[in-house]
Structure prediction request, 160 residues.
Amino acid sequence: MDNDEKYMRAAIKQARKAVQNGDVPIGCVIVQNGVIIARGYNKRNAKKTTLAHAELIAIEKASKKVGDWRLEDCTMYITLEPCQMCAGAIVQARIPKVVVGAMNKKAGCAGSILNMFQIKEFNHQVEFVNGVLEEDCSSMLSDFFKNLRMEIKSERKNNQ
Prediction:
């Protein structure tokens, strides 16, 4: 197993924690010099805030760990392509490389809807790798939403 798969598995482990809290399974780890220095998972529903995305949580932890807002020698691994807010934070944190499992055709801003990582006018561009353990990441999301739809359908049926 290569390092990208190793660290993506760690991000998937984080994503599974989100499901336990009723949140969409998105997980993230940040690696520096071959060591995971920060982890995060989606807590948007649990914390009732838009800002509790896996990437933002991990960036905050990594910044505290290294003692700087610049994460210039780190790599981020995320199970799902980041949204515009998270892509912007990644650019702002000057993270040089991001590795993603599944693309996000509805809200992705690393190439699906737009590519915030390669806007030449920004003072920082991000190397982007996608498709690492894509099937695992995609199926985890699909299963989550399938189960959610079944729960909603069951609730509606019980309320009739």
Observations:
- The helical segments are 3-20, 44-47, 54-66, 84-92, 134-158.
- The chain has a mean pLDDT of 95.
